[in-house]
Amino acid sequence: MSRLFVGLSLALIASVALNVSYLIQHAAATHAPRVDIRRPLRTVAGLFSSPLWLAGGALGLLGWAMHIAALTRAPISLVQAFLVGGIALVAPLAVHFLGHHLSRSEIAGVILMGVALFALTVGRGHVGLHSGFRARALGSYVIVSCVLAGALLLTDAPRAQALGLAGGILYGAADLSIKALTGIGTDDGVTAVLRSPWLLAAAVTSIAAFFCFQRGLQSGNALPVIALMTAGTNVISIVGGLLVFGDPLGRRPPFIVLHLAAFVLVAVAAWLMAPAQAAMTTGPEGH
Asked: Which tens digits make up the pLDDT trace of 150-161?
């Protein structure tokens, strides 16, 4: 069994765990005290007081751990594509357990996702365990992502949606920093990871993303918040994987075109399947 296959399988399983955890946290956060980054201890204490939120958080941590394990075994652009591809596995759960009826667009999204993920595995040839990166390029990319997220919060866009997208952009920046850490840890050990500036970058962007996303879930409907968070995360991390880490696209030009088109299809399919994600929060009657 190849490292790439194991990594992509872990990404799919992590996706299911993360998506279900987001929705559990939304159900709990709507009854928790207001999320306020100016009062972090009060916010965390309020969330931790909910057993339901803790259950969702524990599931999310498990998914996050599997996500990191996937990043040690496959390029970040592929891991992120398969991470969002796991939404196709969440949709049947909404049908089976909640009586959610998939619309034609959601069914099309499931089919498109399957086609896109299959296309991403075709014609790749050998895929290295870790992609190389330049520290200056990664630093610039993370800084630009943070500035973009901050600018979103100053726009006139609906607050919940702006928070969801900003959180997604920050999560994407965090994922790129974590990818860098997995390579450093493999090459130089744990001590090098603890000394790396990417550890601080991953921590800061993850915390900021957490507050944005949790506040976004409290501020509006789960559907656009989760959809925009997912979109922001994957655009930032996939583009970063290609531009900063030099992830391979294919052995020959036709495969390069095929894989670029597949990445676009992943984003389109994820958007089409967002209602099935939201159904897991609102339940069979909550439309």
From this structure: 999 988 778 888
> Is it the case that residue 130 has pLDDT exceeding 60?
no
Longest dimension (CA), the chain: 54
Tokens coding 262: 């597949």
Distance CA 124, CA 81 (A): 15
> 224-245, pLDDT tens digit by residue?
787 788 889 888 999 999 899 9
Strand ranges (E), the chain: none
CA distance 84 to 270: 7
Whole-model pTM: value is 0.78
99: left (phi over 0), alpha (psi -120 to 50) or beta: left
* Burial class (CB within 10 angstroms; exposed 0-12, middle 13-18, buried 19+) of 78: buried
Give whole-number Cα distances, 99 to 56, 80, 94, 103, 230, in Å. Answer: 21, 29, 7, 12, 24
pLDDT at 31: 62
Q: List all residues 6 or more positions away from 15 whose beta carbon is below 8 Å from its beta carbon.
A: 63, 82, 83, 84, 85, 86, 87, 89, 90
Distance, in Å, from the CA atom of 257 to the CA atom of 252, rounded to the nearest integer, reads 9
Q: How many CA atoms lie within 13 A of 194 on its CB side?
A: 3
Rg value, the chain, Cα: 18
pLDDT confidence tier of residue 180, bands split at 50, 70 and 90: very high
Give the model's pLDDT for residue 247: 85
- Quote the distance between the C-alpha of residue 183 and its chain's center: 20
Cβ atoms of 39 and 211 within 8 Å: the answer is no
Token output for 152: 């979103």
